Amino acid sequence: MHTDRIMQLALDMAGLTEVPEDTQVYVPGKITKALVCIDADTGLLSIARDLGYDGVIVHHPQGDEAMLNLHLVMNRQLLTLTKAGVLEDEAREALRSRQFGVERNNHMRNWDYMPSVARLMRMPFMNIHYPCDLMMERIVDVHVQQRLTETGPAATVQDLTDILLEIPEFAHAKTRPAVVVGDPAAPAGKVVTAFAGGTNGGSAVVEAYWRHGVGTVMTLHMEVADILNLRQSEVKGTLVVAGHMACDSVGLNALIRVLRANGLDLTPMGGIVPGV
Ligand SMILES: [Fe+2]
Ligand SMILES: [Fe+2]
């Protein structure tokens, strides 16, 4: 299967019509048997060749435009923010500082290191980020909202983390969903699943949700400095970090199911936990 076809199947899965800013084919080519991983390094490319794989599909951006434009895909968090009731101007403002940090950090990095290695090896190499994260956000959110409705308005934050553990990837992951701000025994209130869109939006984004009636925000991960900020915040609310590898595995397993159904031979590894 050509890398372009793989990309198209990923876009179709997520209901996207264009390749998002953080997703890219670095070395195009035909793949029959690929390693699928959350991260990659040059060793992974070399191992893939040694073990007879003819392609590598990674989740996180590996260089080039996909890495340099990661901050742009964060604009897609505006959809989740405004849907939850945050005004668009306030949502943009809340995103700004984290977006600035991501842009400046990636600007420092060597964008061609990994792509150049894959080119030298003539190894078809691509990353699929936002399409997988969007699928993952939907899968988790549908499950969580349905189970919260069944539990009723008294559902606690602890109930919410228990509900997350009903999803196979969360049950299989070594990390557990963690309540990093707030009380597990408190009511969860309105819950927002803020997973897709580059990376987490930082403390300002979580506060924006809280300010507009969201009781509990779920993110994949959150930096310690942001967690400490939020614990001191005048706006009160709960933050659950669901777990990075558990969440990313949900999106990658969805993609793997689609690609396998279309005949690709895939080996998930490097942090992808089973989805069944
Ligand atoms: Fe992800
Ligand atoms: Fe990730």
Automatic annotation (TrEMBL):
Report the InterPro entries cross-referenced here: DUF34/NIF3_sf (IPR036069)
Reading the lineage from the top rank, the first entry is Bacteria
- Name this polypeptide is given: NGG1p interacting factor NIF3
What is the organism of origin for this protein? Candidatus Cryosericum terrychapinii
Question: In the record, what lineage is assigned to the organism producing the protein?
Answer: Bacteria, Pseudomonadati, Caldisericota/Cryosericota group, Candidatus Cryosericota, Candidatus Cryosericia
